Amino acid sequence: MKPVALVIKDLCVSYGKTAALLDVGIEVQDGQIVSIIGANGAGKTTLLNSITGCVPIQRGTITYNGEAVCSKPHKVVRQGIVQVPEGRRTFSGLTVEENLMVGAYLTKSRGEVAGMIEEMYVLFPRLKERRKQHAATLSGGEQQMLAIARGLMSKPKLLLLDEPSLGLAPLVVDSVFDTIRSISRSGITVLLIEQNAIKAMKLSDYCYVLKNGRVDIQGTGAALLANDQVLQAYLGKNRMEAEGNDPTEN
Ligand SMILES: Nc1ncnc2c1ncn2[C@@H]1O[C@H](COP(=O)(O)OP(=O)(O)OP(=O)(O)O)[C@@H](O)[C@H]1O
Fold first, then answer.
1. What is Dmax (Cα atoms) for the chain?
2. 46 C-beta closer than 6 A to ligand 1
3. 14, CA 20 to 30 Å: which among 47, 78, 137, 246?
4. CATH number, position 104
């Protein structure tokens, strides 16, 4: 078993009187893809934001490779943790290449930055084709790719992805998931928030289902996919439908 890299214990986060996370415990092993799934308002984004210091935590601990995670977002990046927020955020007035350069702000050497950009173009060939275009002129899927690529330019060891497939067409969603698989194979650990629970279960080594701010159920992606009760309770689907063999579609 690989070492546990990220350990979250007894995490509680509130917004005023609204409790968003209650005694949440999460572990992510080095090299894994771990997904956080759950209904709207379950606390998924709050969880990612609390790891990167974007929301203050009331109680609990977050450690990465045995060290407390800094509560300041810019310091968290230096610990090797990078968050790609929801919403395909890019600098719309900058070109694709300029967006990538901004992501490389931790790297001083021009030659190294150029080499990293070339690596991104191998992973995201469509970005190479559009490298001189302003981000505003990209499609939704291309903007999502650019947001992820910009995050990778900070050389993360742990990449936090918040709903990378949100609002994308099904074929584009598949290519985003393929990209996440490639990122994982390159040795980067991935913590993913995803509304598309079935795809997340198929992709992930391990999944946590949040419900009303608590971890309600957890298990390997394969175990959750094989559990009809889980599929019915959380997705309103049986196993056949979840596997894409929905008899009602014929
Ligand atoms: N800035 C905020 N101020 C007040 N309440 C908030 C704030 N952000 C989130 N909440 C509340 O905290 C709870 C958890 O929200 P969060 O955004 O983490 O859920 P989520 O699972 O990511 O939802 P979604 O899938 O809809 O993005 C919800 O009840 C939400 O209304």
1. 57
2. yes
3. 78
4. 3.40.50.300
